[in-house]
């Protein structure tokens, strides 16, 4: 923990993105960190590192983000990045059923490492491509509930729910709570970015 000039504490949190090649992991990070979208993003080699600071009410989380490569030949490197992570975002492409299958394997791998304190989000990316959808939102929600994940569909291209995924993770880190409900999971429905303003117009979440 470090203190800001205003006296509030900064919580450093390691976050890793996992998922199949082409699912849009790098695009999600680029949209969150820089507010940019590149139509033809080059595949990550090994892993890429980013950092971003997010304010939630009067507290601050500094994400140390590892964007891992989706190619199978880099799979053996993944444990170096997800070990000790406070949170993970497992990303799949809603237009690619195989990427959803691959996402499930990443979830199993995270669960097998035995760190029950890791907050895990399931992100169905490319939600702007509804006409070519292969994975239904209901199927993904059901899987999230069964496995104690929280779920959002995102679009790095349109920015839909991108900031929200990181905001919800930051909020849970600060609350120190695990993602639980009587059904064994927590599902967060799709919301526009404007949701990050609370009543009376007071800003509750901002990227610093």
From TrEMBL:
Compartments (UniProt record): Endomembrane system
Example of a GO MF term: GTPase activity
Keywords from the UniProt entry: GTP-binding, Lipoprotein, Membrane, Nucleotide-binding, Prenylation, Protein transport, Transport
Membrane topology note: Lipid-anchor
Source organism, top-level taxon: Eukaryota
Pfam families named among the record's database cross-references: Ras (PF00071)
UniProt xrefs under CDD domains: Rab5_related (cd01860)
GO cellular component labels: endocytic vesicle; endomembrane system; endosome
SUPFAM superfamilies: P-loop containing nucleoside triphosphate hydrolases (SSF52540)
InterPro entries given in the database record: P-loop_NTPase, Small_GTP-bd, Small_GTPase
GO biological process: intracellular protein transport
SMART domains to which the protein is assigned, alphabetical: RAB (SM00175), RAN (SM00176), RAS (SM00173), RHO (SM00174)
Record PANTHER family: PTHR47978
NCBIfam families reported for this sequence: small_GTP (TIGR00231)
Family assignment from sequence similarity: Belongs to the small GTPase superfamily. Rab family.
Protein name per Swiss-Prot or TrEMBL: Ras-related protein RHN1
Species per Swiss-Prot/TrEMBL record: Zea mays
């Amino acid at each position: 923990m470090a203190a800001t000039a205003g006296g509030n504490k900064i919580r450093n949190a390691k976050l890793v993105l996992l998922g199949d090649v082409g699912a849009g992991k790098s695009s999600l990070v680029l949209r969150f960190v820089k507010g940019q979208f590149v139509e033809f993003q080059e595949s990550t080699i090994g892993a890429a590192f980013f950092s971003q600071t997010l304010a939630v009410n009067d507290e601050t989380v500094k994400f140390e983000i590892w964007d891992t490569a989706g190619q199978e030949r880099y799979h053996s490197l993944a444990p170096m990045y997800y070990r000790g992570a406070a949170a993970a975002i497992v990303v799949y492409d809603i237009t690619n059923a195989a990427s959803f299958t691959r996402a499930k394997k990443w979830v199993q791998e995270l669960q097998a490492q035995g760190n029950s304190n890791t907050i895990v989000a399931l992100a169905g990316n490319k939600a702007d491509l509804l006409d070519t959808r292969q994975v239904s939102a209901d199927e993904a929600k059901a899987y999230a509930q069964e496995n104690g994940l929280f779920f959002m569909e995102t679009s790095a291209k349109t920015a839909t729910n991108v900031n929200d995924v990181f905001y919800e993770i930051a909020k849970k880190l600060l609350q120190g709570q695990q993602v639980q409900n009587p059904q064994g999971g927590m599902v967060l429905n799709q919301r526009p970015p404007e949701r990050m303003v609370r009543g009376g117009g007071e800003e509750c979440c901002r990227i610093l």
